[in-house]
Amino acid sequence: xxxxxxxxxxxxxxxxxxxxxxxxxxxxxxxxxxxxxxxxxxxxxxxxxxxxxxxxxxxxxxxxxxxxxxxxxxxxxxxxxxxxxxxxxxxxxxxxxxxxxxxxxxxxxxxxxxxxxxxxxxxxxxxxxxxxxxxxxxxxxxxxxxxxxxxxxxxxxxxxxxxxxxxx
Amino acid sequence: xxxxxxxxxxxxxxxxxxxxxxxxxxxxxxxxxxxxxxxxxxxxxxxxxxxxxxxxxxxxxxxxxxxxxxxxxxxxxxxxxxxxxxxxxxxxxxxxxxxxxxxxxxxxxxxxxxxxxxxxxxxxxxxxxxxxxxxxxxxxxxxxxxxxxxxxxxxxxxxxxxxxxxxxxxxxxxxxxxxxxxxxxx
Lengths: 168, 186
Known about the structure:
The complex is a heterodimer of chains A (168) and B (186). With 168 residues, chain A is mainly α. Helix content of chain A is 68%, strand content 0%. Chain A is elongated, with a radius of gyration of 20 Å. Chain B has six helices and nine strands; from the N terminus they run αααβαβββαβββαββ. The interface between A and B is large, with 58 and 51 residues.
């Protein structure tokens, strides 16, 4: 196992990254945490069984495992939604909200302060209405590229207002 | 897994495009692959993902300024109701009062309406002071109640409220009303 990272190092190094990718696809912290646990367990087993040929293939192996697990989550969510639709009055999108969604709304309201009206609109449409840049662009009469630029600017202003540092 | 400087570091802007699905799928895949071989970009992505998730969680839970009929009734005389019925309306502000703009849409306006947004505009300012997407219309009455505190209206002075409807994917102006605000003393 020369050159291979230890199991703890793999978890420390790749766990947060798997979480980032899972959040991007699932937009749900608790589902993302489940993905992290299952991916890391699977990678550790693969390392123990010598199924990863070289140390430089550990990262790609983690990613491919992560993608498979996310795809599984989508599939099981689709099955769950279909089942819920059969049960009158059960809305699968509103059950069991994540505990992690306890956030300081006042701080985010404050972070909206430096934004222009158009930037606020774009942030609202993006997060609350889950609209794509193309849809927002059509609604406000501009180009999708312009919406993306305004969105970058708005989110950077919000991060600055919240005192969130740039990445390390 | 040592951290080395990246030859083509991932920018926040590109990560935002990735986050919102605005990258072509091949680019999205190659970005993800990069994150798993480049520790420094991977670390940045971890921080940005958490920031964007937090902003998304919070922004979608922000209180919205709409009141149901029951909520309006519960406010009693703490609220001053202003019916938005004509092109020009006059608003007499009372201190420390919630002013509630009541808008009623008729059948023709409601027909085929997929979505309704409201904007508050000020003359000479190119962008809306605020824009709220997806106004919750009360199905029975075709009404909504939009609440604004007197000190906010006082700060902005005369302004325009514009309702934007979406029908068959096309946005159009449903109603536009100029508000003449008689301000608070002092």
